[in-house]
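Hello,

Our lab assistant flagged a job as stuck in the queue for most of the afternoon. It eventually completed. Since we weren't sure the result was trustworthy after the delay, we are filing this so someone can double-check. Below is the sequence as submitted and the structure that was eventually returned. Let us know if re-running is recommended.
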Amino acid sequence: MEASGTAASRVWFITGASRGLGRAFTEAALTAGDRVVGAARDISPLDELAARHPDRLLALPLDVTDRSAVFDAVDRTAGHFGRLDIVVNNAGALFAGMVEEFTEAQARAQMDVNFFGALWVSQAVLPRLRAQGGGHIVQISSIGGLGGFPSTGLYSASKFALEGMSEALAAEAARFGVKLTIVQPGGYWTDLYTGSTATAPEPAYDALRAELAEQWAQGSVDSDPRLAAEALMKLVAADDPPLRLLLGSMVYDVAFDISRRRMECWAGWEAVSRAAEQATSGPPAAS
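-- returned structure --
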């Protein structure tokens, strides 16, 4: 048996901890001597890690779309380790398909995991972090949170929702000493894509699908998840962490390109935008 975490060791709550980026984050935190609650639908991939770190890793089965289960898991975390310092909302899923192709069930399922799951975790941890007077919430977004791209429209919608909620939450929580960072990773070798759910293809988009497949084959850049974990450890060690952090050269360049194009678009229609506003002394009279 290993020794328990020291008084100075941090306590992490990581969702989607059994695979991909979540697994890399969990391993990095344990290597740093911290204590971790690793939550996932299937925790069996964490068995070996739990055996090596029996006093510092608590693996919890959790479906983040179940709000009551999320609150119970956070209560169990606090009861087991006594506190909570770093929360990583990493659990996510990718539903691939053109916007027109999505069924209602698929659209709701995409939002349930990527947005509502993170919302429930954020709501569950805030009272504890607020009472402690500090903590750090890390929301794992995506390059899909920077813009909408063909075949990942609903995925982007879920990440846009996550980022909008998180910007507001960051401002609300700051007065209590709670920090929040939105992390926007590029491509990593995880099973996000191989484990994705696809819509029933509409033949009208066959040519576009072929173009996208060729682009991805030529321009895809995927990295070892451990690089993302190294960046995360630097982030949570910072005294003044940023609201947003891009991970990867490709996503960094895409972010600036999207921002420039948006500014150019707004500037091109500046006259129309400004003409649509004029102060009045009261509501307009009924016609």
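-- support follow-up --
The delay was a queue issue, not a problem with the job. The result is valid. Confidence is low (pLDDT under 50) at residues 1-7. The CA atoms of residues 48 and 115 lie 30 Å apart.
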